[in-house]
Design a protein that fits this description.
Blueprint (H helix, E strand, L loop, with lengths): L1 H18 L15 H6 L43 E8 L10 E2 L5 E5 L3 E5 L5 E5 L10 E2 L5 E5 L2 E5 L5 E5 L10 E2 L5 E4 L4 E5 L5 E6 L4 E6 L5 E5 L4 E5 L5 E6 L9 E2 L5 E3 L4 E5 L5 E6 L7 E2 L5 E4 L5 E5 L6 E6 L11 E2 L5 E6 L6 E6 L5 E7 L8 E4 L4 E2 L5 E9 L3 E12 L10 E3 L10 E6 L8 E6 L9 E4 L5 E5 L5 E11 L8 E7 L5 H13 L1 H6 L1 E2 L2 E2 L6
Antiparallel strand pairs: 1-33, 2-3, 3-4, 4-5, 6-7, 7-8, 8-9, 10-11, 11-12, 12-13, 14-15, 15-16, 16-17, 18-19, 19-20, 20-21, 22-23, 23-24, 24-25, 26-27, 27-28, 28-29, 30-32, 31-32, 32-33, 34-35, 35-38, 36-37, 36-39, 39-40, 41-42
């Protein structure tokens, strides 16, 4: 009887250790018992009847880097993507600064604005809802297993229902400075600028915290639930057990600016300045390959480690076994800003970059062997601006659409003034036709000219028009008008030159059509025939013509 009682007691103690949250008698060298049970203990139904955990839900791009391993590898193909800009969503009041849209199973995009809260955007580029957040946020949201959207600000860590109502707020000290990462069990990991890493239950309570003392940069998880993270000015990569105790550290010698990538075999890939380093799961170095700038790699379906130097012209495909270069793609210039790659299930590599001065931007698609497939312009309709930057990485939708964020600044008093989410993919067959533009191809400076736009919707829907005049001005969207109805619009130019007028149409379903174009020349504001008469007269009297010259520059000949 005594032995039976002891056995029952030991069994009860074992169960107690495994299911009570926060029990921390596990040694540093051991994994916590029943990791999944430990995280599901308090999981139930909240006061609004919303399940905290109901098994995995199919999400398209739920986290920064797509998944907890930070692979930037989508399970959806994008070989059909043609690089056509389907739409762009403009945030007039804030900026989508340093964010990548996360995508739920319905294709809804969630992104944050630095000054103006959390946005939910339908797959067609129209606003679903917007929620203000207390405090500023500069990192993207994350989608939990049950559809909850998590976003951190300078005032706390917030959870929202999918309809945009606030679920709870956790007042964590210090700026939220890392992208939230979520484990398969629903635990949310988020770091702060005050040097703490928090493990948070889906109901908003803290499981444990780890105090590093340095500003957290990024966090990743492996298949066993081990946590990997980096910090600013720390020169170390850290690995914790799932219970929050230290497993090992790896000295990188230089700063790391992004979360590490975890390979399928558990290898950890990180990119401090000057090196791409592969680390074995036990914390020992596997190999390193020189690089030009810090960043974070992505994982191809065939295992290739794809690395894009942040502000250099190179994109590399590295062998995961020894780090040798499988392929190399090189731009013709060093961009001011460049994203890390995002890769589709068919191996297409997408990355965005600016020019050398940050004035224009592009999105490129590479084949799995590193050869160029296409390059598309990333456009802005707001002028003037002093420079532009890109979100950290594209994200890929279930239909192969690639989403990129841009943000622009004007001066130093309002440095992050406006931003866009851009969608690149295929032209929808039901989109309106590219407008035909008719009107004069020449004109006089300062004189209004009339142009007629005509576009047809294949489904007969009303349409809106948008015109870029080629002089850093535009009409904004105006309408609606009936499909096929000629629409007149006026414009004048203030300087000499040849201008490319571009017009675009969208219908009432927000399907955007292709561009229509027309070249317009602005020779002069003077009467051309009068000038031609004087030029011919001066040619007959060389001495008189010379009197109208300054340092050999003929004022009459160079007027037109």
């Amino acid at each position: 009887m005594i032995q039976k009682a002891l056995a029952v007691g030991l069994l009860f103690l074992l169960i107690f250790c495994c299911v009570i949250p926060g029990f921390s008698s596990v040694e540093q060298s051991e994994l916590p018992c029943s990791f999944e049970q430990q995280r599901r203990t308090d999981v139930s139904i909240d006061h609004q009847g919303f399940k905290l955990i109901d098994g995995p839900i199919d999400f398209v791009w739920p986290l920064y880097g797509h998944d907890a391993q930070n692979t930037c590898l989508s399970e959806y193909a994008a070989s059909q993507n043609e690089g056509y800009e389907k739409w762009k969503y403009f945030d007039a009041d804030g900026t989508f600064q340093l964010v990548t849209p996360v995508i739920d199973g319905n294709g809804t995009l969630y992104t944050t604005s630095f000054y103006d809260g959390l946005y939910a955007i339908y797959p067609n580029g129209t606003l679903k809802w917007h929620s203000d957040l207390v405090g500023f946020t500069e990192f993207q949201p994350a989608i939990g297993l049950d559809g909850t959207i998590y976003a951190g600000t300078t005032e706390g860590f917030h959870a929202f229902y999918p309809n945009g109502t606030l679920r709870w707020t956790l007042p964590i000290g210090g700026d939220i400075c890392g992208h939230p990462v979520i484990s398969p069990e629903g635990i949310i990991y988020v770091g702060t600028s005050s040097g703490f890493l928090y493990a948070v239950y889906p109901n908003g309570t803290i499981q444990w915290e780890y105090n590093l003392g340095y500003r957290f940069i990024g966090t990743s998880l492996d298949a066993e639930g081990n946590i990997y993270f980096t910090a600013l000015h720390c020169d170390y990569l850290y690995c914790l057990y799932p219970n929050g105790t230290l497993r090992w550290t790896f000295k990188t010698m230089y700063d790391i600016y992004d979360a590490p990538l975890i390979g399928d075999d558990g290898t950890i890939y990180t990119v401090p300045v000057y090196d791409v380093i592969a680390i074995n799961p036990d914390g020992t170095e596997k190999w390193r390959t020189p690089s030009k700038a810090g960043g974070s790699p992505a994982l191809s379906p065939d295992g290739t480690i794809v690395y894009s130097s942040h502000s250099a012209e190179d994109v590399f495909g590295l062998d995961p076994d020894d780090g040798h270069i499988r392929w190399h793609y090189q731009l013709d210039f060093n961009p001011r800003d460049k994203t890390r790659p995002a890769i589709s299930s068919d191996g297409t590599v997408f990355f965005a970059y600016t020019d050398e001065i940050g004035d224009t931007a592009y999105l490129s698609a590479l084949n799995p062997d590193g050869t160029l497939r296409w390059t598309a312009d990333i456009t802005s309709d707001i002028y003037p601006y002093d420079g532009m930057y890109l979100g950290p990485t594209p994200s890929i939708g279930a239909d192969g659409t690639v989403y990129v964020t841009t943000w622009f600044y004007r001066g130093e008093t309002m440095p992050y003034h406006f931003g866009y989410v851009h969608a690149f993919g295929q032209l929808d067959p039901n989109a309106p036709t590219g407008p035909t533009i008719t009107g004069p191809s020449q004109g006089k400076i300062g004189v209004q000219q009339e142009y007629t736009l005509t576009s047809i919707s294949p489904t007969g829907k009303d349409v809106y028009y948008y015109v870029l005049w080629g002089d850093d001005s535009n009409t904004n969207w105006f309408g609606p008008f009936r499909s096929g109805e000629p629409v007149s619009v006026n414009h004048s130019w203030s300087k000499w030159g040849t201008y490319t007028v571009q017009a675009r149409t969208k219908d009432t379903d927000n399907l955007w059509g292709s561009w229509g174009t027309l070249l317009v020349e602005m020779p002069t504001s003077y009467n051309i025939s009068f000038l031609q008469f004087w030029m011919k007269l001066l040619q007959r009297f060389p001495l008189l013509e010379k009197s109208f010259s300054i340092n050999g520059y003929n004022l009459w000949r160079n007027t037109c």
